[in-house]
């Protein structure tokens, strides 16, 4: 049994129709629930909920403050490789794009890590495309082992692996796994992933579960917003997160909100998501999932990011480079996408403080897992 068995019970178009049929009374009912159901989630994602956005924002704010306090945890991505054998139509690293390919050596990755550490970060996200013949699991294990002394927490956002490969990463200090389904819409998934291993929808969908079995402390989900209708994506994303929370209760679950950004290949989002719609999605998922970390990256512009700080987001990236080697040699390699918030980490931390929140550079240490604390 996996989440695939759950999602198979639904039809994408029926879910959309159901969401669109919800009334203001349904939304009021959902907002009044102490423990909203998946049926309530449909109401919170509906066009009718747009009129209650202020009320949803207030509820999301209250829940987040109760569960997390007034904090924003900060992390930085480290791009290790832009090699990729897949042809995702929306991505700058698509195998068909004529860009210069580069994979950092573990020592070069360590130099990048030192730069990131010097900016204040202690939470790191290791990122790469999918080219296991050139960049195998052992490479990530070796690189993580080198970086381990610099960071209290490391996650990977790389290609889906088998459980035993993930165990190798866990053994070498990686404690988090981030894997976006990209889109839960099967037809759209097939269309935007025309070639490569990534065509395998089921293999990707079951990835967080293999990660849970391997013992990752954090499991991160997301849908790439702009590929298909955001209301249905948010519904399935919410179901997926709740499924993992129940099945892998030892792991902390997070949800990210990546909106499509310009990249090499110039893909135009088929279903663009407005700022207001993204706020509705964030607040609806916060109300459904009070204990789930919600993540916003530098894909979003400064004004929007600042606005979202009190509305449910608990973790953000800052000062990001999205090309391999970007912290030590900026602009020498092709970036995966253009970032929209170019403020330095310290500048952004100051904005967080001005809003009455505490920027958190470190909230975890591997020593907690080793039983060295009294
Ligand atoms: S999204 Fe990932 S798998 Fe797809 S082309 Fe880009 S780097 Fe490769």
The unique ligands bound to this protein are:
iron/sulfur cluster
CATH superfamily: Aldolase class I
- Give the number of domains: 1
Structural class: alpha/beta
| Radius of gyration, CA atoms, in whole angstroms | 20 Å
Secondary structure: number of strands? 9
Output the number of helix runs. 16
User: Which residues form runs of ≥5 with pLDDT under 50?
Assistant: none
According to CATH, the fold-level topology is TIM Barrel
Q: Hey, roughly how much beta strand do the residues contain?
A: 5-15%
Query: Based on the structure given, which CATH architecture is correct?
Result: Alpha-Beta Barrel
Distance between the termini: 38 Å
Q: Give the ordered list of helices and strands.
A: HHHHHEHEHEHEHHHEHEHEHEHEH
Q: Which sheet architecture does the biggest sheet show? A: 8 strands, parallel, barrel
The spatial strand order of the largest sheet comes to: 1-2-3-4-5-6-7-8
What is the top-level CATH class? Alpha Beta
Tell me, what's the shape? Answer: globular
Helix fraction bin: 40-55%
* Average pLDDT number: 94
For the structure shown, list the relevant keywords:
single chain, 374 residues, alpha/beta, TIM Barrel, eight-stranded parallel β-barrel, 9 strands, binds iron/sulfur cluster
